[in-house]
Design brief:
This protein has a seven-stranded mixed β-sheet with strand order 1-2-5-4-7-8-12, with no helix packed on it. Strands 3, 6, 9, 10 and 11 form a five-stranded mixed β-sheet that branches. The chain is mostly beta strands and about 210 residues long. It has one domain. It starts with 6 loop residues before the first strand and ends with a strand. It is built from two helices and twelve strands, in the order βββββββββαβαββ.
């Protein structure tokens, strides 16, 4: 899984210096070990039409699902925000591992993070200011070994996609919210991994205001 080093923007009119962020996803069926200063972070992104009538498989690796009917492709960027005054202000992973159903299991350092997307129907790995939409922010606390972020519910408006305007139609994010699946989420996690780091914590993502 490649990572690129680039000069990027954080949706503000000043340039920020970026660096690479390595994001590992532990293999199912094995105990999870994270190391000092890190935690297992998990949750899910659930994308639906604006009326919530249909869930969209925007992370599916089966390209047939993105053609007929046309389903948008979500490309993600994960940014770890560093303390002010350093030579590097954030580290970026433009394609953190995510499963077809939108669930993710990442080993991350403690700290503050921003989760963003590029709202292009056919996908793009470009994350310049005009192409990037912040979805949510979250924190990995230093005292937790496993952190549940909840389910980020993303409602998208497909009007422009259905009209097929231009060579690369776009879609709009209508609403963002976070749901907490509670103990059920940890039950599913335990069925995936024989053991996970302790202590466990729920620290919900904060959706970006629309």
């Amino acid at each position: 899984m490649g990572r690129t080093r680039s000069r990027a923007f954080l949706l503000v009119p000043v340039a920020l210096l970026g660096a690479c962020l390595s994001v590992a996803s532990p293999r199912p069926g094995r105990p999870v070990e994270v190391g000092a200063g890190k935690a297992l972070v998990f949750g899910r992104l659930r994308v639906t039409t604006a009326d919530h009538g249909r869930e969209l498989r925007v992370f599916s690796r089966d390209w047939a699902e993105h053609v007929i009917p046309p389903e948008p492709v979500f490309n993600l960027e994960l940014r770890q925000i560093h303390a002010p005054g350093g030579a590097v202000e954030y580290s970026s992973s433009p394609s953190p591992p995510i499963e077809d159903d939108g669930s993710f299991h990442w080993i991350l350092e403690q700290g503050d993070y921003v989760l963003a997307s590029n709202p292009r129907a056919y996908g793009s790995s470009g994350f310049a200011a005009g192409d990037t939409t912040v979805l949510a922010r979250f924190t990995v606390p230093p005292w937790a070994g496993t952190v549940y972020l909840g389910t980020l519910r993303i409602a998208v408006e497909l009007g422009e996609l259905e009209k097929w305007k231009g060579p690369e139609p776009r879609y709009e994010i209508a609403r963002l919210s976070v749901a907490d699946d509670g103990e059920q989420a940890f039950t599913l996690l335990r069925s995936r991994y024989p053991s996970v780091p302790e202590p466990r914590a729920t620290v919900a993502m904060v959706p970006e205001a629309r």
